[in-house]
Amino acid sequence: MTQVSLRHIHKQYAASLTPAVNRLSLDIPSGKITALLGASGSGKTTLLKIIAGLLPVIDGDVLFDGRSVLSIPTEQRGAVMVFQNHLLFPHMTIEQNIGFGLKMRGVNAALIRERVAEMLALIQLPDVNKRRPHQLSGGQQQRVALARALIIEPRVLLLDEPLSNLDAHLRDEMRDLIRQVQQTFGITTIIVTHDQQDAVVLADVIALMRDGEVQQFDSPDALFNRPINEQVARFFGSVNFLTCTSDGHVARTEVGPFEISSQMPSQRALLTIRPEHIRIVQASSNTLQGVIEVQQFMGTYYRILVRVPESSVKIIAHTTTLPNQMAERVTLHFPPEHLWIIPQD
Amino acid sequence: MVERHRGTPDIKSILRYLLLGIMGLAFTAPMIAFLLNAFARQWFFPQLLPQTWTLEAWERLLSGRSEFVQALGNSALIASVVTLVALILGLPAARVMGLYRFRGKRVIEFLLLLPAVVPPLAVSMGLTVNFLRWGLAGTWVGVALVHLVPVLPYVVLILSGTFASYDVSHEAQARSLGAKPLAVFRYITLPMIFPGVVVAGLFAFLISWSQYLLTLLVGGGRVMTLPILLFSSASGSNNTTIAVQALMFTAPTLLLLLFTSRVLSRNALTGLARL
Question: What burial class does residue A222 get, using C-beta atoms within 10 Å of its C-beta: 0-12 exposed, 13-18 middle, 19+ buried?
Answer without folding.
Answer: middle
